[in-house]
Amino acid sequence: MQVNAIVFIDIGGTAVPAGQISITEDGRYSRCEFAYGRRYLQRKDAVAIDPVQLPLGPALMEAPEGFPLFNGVRDAAPDAWGRKLIDRESLRSQGRPATEAEFLLVSQSGNRIGALRFGPTPVAVGPVLPLQIDDRLTHLGDLEAFQDLVDRLEPDRPLPPRFIDFLAPGTDLGGARPKGTVTIDGFPHLVKFGLSRDRYNMAAVEAGCLDLCEMAGIPTCARQVIRVGDRDALVLRRFDREEGEGGVRRRHMISALTLLGAHESDRGLSGYADLYDGLRRHAVSGDHGEAVFRRMVMNVLCGNTDDHYRNTALLLTERGRYELSPLYDVTPTLQSLGARNLFLHLGRAGAGREATLENAVAAGPSLGLRPERAERIVNDLSEMVGARWRETLRSRGASEQDLEMVANSFSEAGRRVGADATPEP
Ligand SMILES: Nc1ncnc2c1ncn2[C@@H]1O[C@H](COP(=O)(O)OP(=O)(O)O)[C@@H](O)[C@H]1O
Ligand SMILES: [Mg+2]
After folding, report:
1. Ligand 1, atom nearest to 306 Cα
2. What residue stretches are annotated with the HipA-like C-terminal domain (predicted)?
């Protein structure tokens, strides 16, 4: 089956046709091509929708082998959670699981992540395929019913009654955990639901970890823990939207996967130094080395080993250059045995992934930091997190039991490294 669609990107609050994508799927074989439109290329404000795999230019481009879609386009499609919803809808209405093209194109909701949208012709954004999910908004008062749907959506269980209501708000966001878009005071927010099988209060702990990251000098997304039914949920203000003339505007967003031209399955092939290099190539000017370093150190200190490519995002600024988005998805990964390894190497690829303060300091020079500076930041942040993580998580609603559960993840916090390190007992 071959599907053609026009890719639109919002520029200054208007959906502009950028080019045409063609997706061919035939069993396990897939192929994806894209060409920018001539009119788009003539615009002064034209930007590449993917600075690595789809640079601006007139050529017809083909996605590299093993990539069902170009990375920058794939960023506009959902991950595990949204795919699960779309699959259930496809099974319900078409009697078969959804295809890659459907995962990308099915949503007609205004909630899609970033600034890309799709249409059948360059005239307007709109449905491309028979399977489609129409726009619906979710408000705070709907969240209990939404949470109920999340709880009931186990494999092979009958579809919950309000399934259709929450398809649109639920499908457009990435990540594996159940989430949706909720409109608060006319502005879209992302809500991450708790699950009955969670081993600790995810909302409270995640909010607290982001608080610590903010204290560490990292811009983080605005957040709130709210009560939904018998559980807490985390509400995050969407940073890929902004107030503008004529209402809420979309900001184009790419993942670090796109920035690095990497493949989903590239575990262990990239390091924080690659992120730094990618930022130097494609980001606005700034001290990216220290920004990346602080994020890496906080992942070590909070024991967050889920620092994969999609947990770093970049937002388009003017002039076609990017900036790191506010930080999100920092949570302690529960693990009792063995070394704790980050997803990315600390420093260059091959430098090692073990989450220790020593490895973090050693990575400093590959991020442009002098060794003394790297050591100082590590010791300062370690002291801060060691002294404050319990009270910070507690103030977001974590219980003593939650703190016990995650304590092992904070085992590096409070330790000192380097010449003035106090010897360990
Ligand atoms: N505040 C936000 N605004 C806009 N997009 C966000 C925000 N927070 C996260 N995202 C996007 O949603 C995706 C899923 O969020 P994340 O917190 O990583 O969930 P999960 O825990 O399921 O991985 C992210 O990969 C990112 O693309
Ligand atoms: Mg995530």
Report:
1. 23
2. 172-389
Q: Looking at residue 164, what is its pLDDT?
A: 85
Q: Which residues surround ligand 2, an ion (CB under 5 A)?
A: 175, 311, 329
Determine how β-strand 29-36 pairs with β-strand 231-237.
Answer: unpaired
Q: What's the predicted TM-score (pTM) here?
A: 0.95
CA distance 38 to 303: 48
Measuring from atom 15 of ligand 1, which residue has the nearest CA? 175
Question: Ligand 1 centre and the CA of 175: distance in Å?
Answer: 6
Q: Cα 276 to chain center, whole Å?
A: 18
Pocket of ligand 1 contains residue 176 by CB under 6 Å: yes
Q: Output DSSP code: residue 195.
A: -
Ligand with an atom nearest the CA of residue 239: 1
Burial class (CB in 10 A: 0-12, 13-18, 19+), 48: buried
Name which residue sits closest to atom 11 of ligand 1, judged by CA: 174
* 8-state DSSP, 300: H
| Phi, psi angles (nearest 5°) of residue 367 | -110, 15
Q: What DSSP character marks residue 121?
A: B
201, 257, 305 from 405: Cα distances, Å: 10, 31, 16
What's CA 60's distance to the chain center, in Å?
A: 29
Going through 112-244 in order, the beta strands assigned E by DSSP cover: 116-119, 179-184, 187-192, 223-228, 231-237, 241-244
Residue with the nearest Cα to atom 26 of ligand 1? 174
Domain ranges of the chain: 1-120, 251-410
In the predicted model, what is the mean pLDDT of residues 122-148? 93
Cβ of 311 below 6 Å from ligand 1: yes
pLDDT tens digits, 6-18: 999 999 999 999 9
Q: Which amino acid is it at 222?
A: A
pLDDT tier, 258 (very low <50, low <70, confident <90, very high otherwise): very high
Give residues with Cβ within 8 angstroms of 322, minimum separation 6: 51, 254, 259, 279, 282, 283, 284, 314, 315, 316
- CA dist 278 and 388 (Å) reads 33
Ligand 1 pocket test, pick from 71, 81, 116, 173 with the greatest ligand atom count within 8 Å of Cβ, gives 173
Measure 359 CA to ligand 1 centroid, in angstroms: 27
CA 72, chain centre distance (Å):
13
H or E element, residue 212? helix 202-215
Within 290-335, strands assigned E span: 313-316, 322-324
Task: Give me the half-sphere count of Cα atoms (radius 13 Å) on the Cβ side of residue 316.
Answer: 27
